[in-house]
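About this split. The held-out portion is used to measure sequence recovery: a designer receives only the structure tokens and must propose an amino acid at every position. Recovery is the fraction of positions where the proposal matches the reference. Here is one held-out target exactly as it appears in the evaluation file.
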């Protein structure tokens, strides 16, 4: 009889969401060359009415390509792996862990313009905790992709829930969408708020209230766009 293959701990933990949804994120299309990307940017400059050969614009396609590498570096990051290292010596700590006001820089997948805001992330540890900066890195790994805010919120919460298996996870994101502030309806002051509550944050009103009170303490200033 064959013995079962040894799964890595992370694979065993991915019980709710397939790994393909959790972080790989790479679309199944061939990545164009840098030269092809720069040619596309020159086309957009001409579409806007510009001459891409004039002095001020000569290096713009290369700069934009480099900026895109930075804006969208999340496609090469695996959020599940970011949470792989956990700590179990927590002396029975079982209260809420909250990281609030995490700067969010993303891009709307409908208009390819910035979404700027902040995220508040909380979980109720079961037997282990994760380094607090890792929560911010998970936010970044998903934010540095083309997104809609609803999906971004759910991806962050689901990944923390699947990997850490805590008693609950809460994610709230408040953000300004430049597709709404600088074009279309032109409403610069409007911010969008999304939330995803799992486990105790969904089932226990007092836990949810405690979390919302914690993030409300300082969240009365408006989001910078
Ligand atoms: Zn948009």
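Reference sequence for scoring:
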């Amino acid at each position: 009889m064959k013995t079962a293959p040894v799964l890595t701990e992370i694979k065993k933990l991915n019980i709710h969401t397939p790994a393909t949804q959790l972080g790989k994120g790479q679309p199944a299309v061939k990545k164009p060359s840098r030269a092809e990307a720069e040619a596309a940017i020159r086309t957009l400059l001409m579409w806007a009415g510009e001459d891409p050969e004039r002095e001020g614009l000569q290096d713009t396609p290369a700069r934009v390509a480099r900026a895109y590498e930075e804006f969208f570096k999340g496609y090469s990051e695996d959020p599940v792996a970011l949470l792989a290292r956990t700590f179990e010596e927590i002396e029975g700590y079982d209260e809420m862990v909250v990281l609030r006001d995490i700067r969010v820089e993303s891009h709307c997948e409908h208009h390819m313009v910035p979404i700027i805001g902040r995220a508040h992330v909380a979980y109720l540890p079961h037997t282990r905790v994760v380094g607090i900066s890792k929560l911010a890195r998970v936010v970044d790994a998903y934010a540095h992709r083309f997104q809609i805010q609803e999906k971004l919120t759910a991806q962050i919460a689901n990944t923390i829930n699947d990997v850490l298996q805590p008693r609950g996870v809460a994610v709230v994101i408040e953000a300004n969408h430049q597709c709404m502030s600088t074009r279309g309806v032109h409403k610069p002051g409007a911010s969008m708020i999304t939330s995803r509550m799992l486990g105790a944050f969904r089932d226990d009103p007092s836990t949810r209230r405690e979390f919302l009170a914690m993030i409300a303490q300082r969240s009365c200033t408006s989001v910078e766009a």
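Annotator remark: Residues 108, 110-111, 177, 179 surround zinc ion (CB under 6 Å).
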